[in-house]
Write a structure and sequence with these properties.
Blueprint (H helix, E strand, L loop, with lengths): L1 H24 L5 E7 L6 H25 L4 E7 L4 H13 L4 E4 L3 H17 L6 E4 L16 E3 L4 H12 L7 E7 L2 H17 L4 E8 L8 H9 L4 E4 L4 H13 L4 E4 L7 H5 L7 E5 L8 H13 L10 H14 L13 H8 L3 E4 L2 E6 L4 E3 L2 E8 L14 E9 L1 H4 L12
Helix pairs in contact: 2-11, 3-4, 5-6, 7-8, 11-12
């Protein structure tokens, strides 16, 4: 009897699933997605890298919709130049162009401004509401005191990443001194604050011999910073730097003769491994939601598929979380009646569906926590090594260096509590 009940429930679920696809297949206007990101200036390479990820995911969603039915995506890009003012201007342009979904991530300061602007817009114009999907802005405040019903984060925030990183750091009993350096804005401040808190809890014997915050995207020569780090005798550097700020820092550290470890949030991409070279073997640690050398067949198939689409080694920047984000969005829009009584895209229905999103892709999975809109997913920590050694089948950006997975953290273990008091959707 139980078997037939399960079979009946499965039949109902499949019927509802495909009826939603059939229902939304009649929507002639695609879901319009606006990526607002740095596409020029010192972090232009980071924006272009994100665009490749979102483009690849859009192509996959649209190919599936063409054969199986469902809503197609239309992706358009807007250059924020990494500035909050430019981002808000881009947001206005995107909304004027009919955008339904806003995507951004490569600056927590910009993300905070966009959340505030979208909150006000959605309150002012309920018939033209938009959702904000965040793939990389990881200031914890964005899903805590600044949480919004219109904002969903698909990356682990600073405290979650730091917890995973310190899990590895605390096992290095030879480490006795560390230097904290970061970018002087909300994200950099959050990294420094949490690093000090976690070190005090997990490794109180490690001395913080220096702490520095520098202007974001403005430093062309990091040699003075590197010389200061070396002069302290620090055995390791802990940094949340990304893009050119990370690459130039590690290059300068190498030139200055610093031979300690780097504990990083983003040391596994965008030029950093090549810049460090042999000096980074066994010394550069990076935390991520996924790495190419995660030892599963599904992970390898996923990475190989990306390399087929973007074979140029310089384009080798792929993030599983961005793919899971797009899969969650596709799942949400294809599970609701997409158009409301005014024939407008039903943003409130999509928002409600995203709160319950549970997705799996090539062996990786995650789910949205409805109370604060913080995506919950496994994390991994990798150690830089030469391609070809055990555990390093794939290198990064053709550099000859890759990251061997040294710790995997389950979604449950990575989860942290929240102080979010989510406003009600009206």
């Amino acid at each position: 009897m139980k078997f037939f009940l399960k079979l009946f429930l499965a039949f109902i679920a499949i019927t509802l699933h495909f009826s939603a696809f059939a229902q939304n297949d009649s929507v002639s206007t695609p879901l319009k997605i606006a990526m607002i990101e740095s596409l020029s200036g010192p972090f232009g390479n980071t924006g272009e890298a994100v665009y490749r990820n979102l483009l690849w995911a859009t192509e996959r969603v649209n190919a599936r919709a063409a054969t199986k039915g469902g809503v197609k995506f239309e992706l358009k890009r807007y250059d924020s130049k990494g500035q909050s003012e430019e981002a808000t201007s881009a947001l206005r342009s995107a909304i004027d162009d009919g955008a339904h979904i806003i995507m951004q991530g490569n600056s927590s300061a910009v993300a905070a401004v966009l959340i505030d602007a979208i909150n006000k817009h959605n309150e002012r114009e309920p018939n033209k509401r938009v959702l904000f999907l965040n793939y990389s802005a990881i200031d914890p405040a964005l899903t805590n005191e600044k949480c919004s019903p219109w904002h969903f984060r698909f990356d682990a925030h600073v405290d979650m990443r730091m917890k995973a990183l310190v899990e590895v750091l605390k096992e290095d009993q030879a480490l006795k001194s560390i230097y904290i350096i970061g970018q002087d804005y909300s994200f950099g401040h959050a990294v420094a604050k949490e690093a000090k808190r976690q070190l005090a809890l997990q490794r109180p014997d490690v001395a913080i011999v220096g702490e520095e915050l520098h202007p974001i995207g403005r430093i062309k020569d990091f040699l003075p910073y590197a010389a200061k780090i070396k002069a302290t005798g620090a055995q390791a550097v802990l940094t949340g730097n990304f893009g050119n700020d990370l690459t130039l820092l590690v290059k300068s550290a190498k030139e200055a003769g610093f031979d300690g470890k780097f504990y990083t949030f983003f040391g596994n991409a965008l030029g950093a491994p090549a810049a460090i070279g042999d000096a980074g073997v066994g010394k550069v640690v990076a935390v991520a939601d996924w790495l190419p050398n995660v030892p599963t067949p599904g992970s390898e198939a996923f990475y190989q598929a990306f390399k087929v689409r973007f074979p140029n080694p310089a384009d080798d920047y792929v993030h599983m979380r961005m793919q899971l984000m797009m899969e969650a969005l596709a799942q949400a829009v294809n599970s609701v009646k997409l158009q409301n009584s005014n024939n407008a895209i039903n943003i409130v229905a999509i928002q409600a569906a995203l709160k319950r999103a549970m997705v799996a892709f090539h062996g990786q999975s995650g789910e949205m926590r409805g109370v604060d809109h913080q995506f919950q997913q496994p994390l991994v920590v990798g150690l830089m090594d030469k391609q070809g050694v055990a555990g390093v089948k794939f290198d990064v950006e053709g550099s000859g260096y890759g990251f061997r997975v040294i710790k995997q953290i389950s979604a449950k273990a990575a989860e942290l509590s929240t102080t979010c008091k989510m406003p009600l959707v009206r």
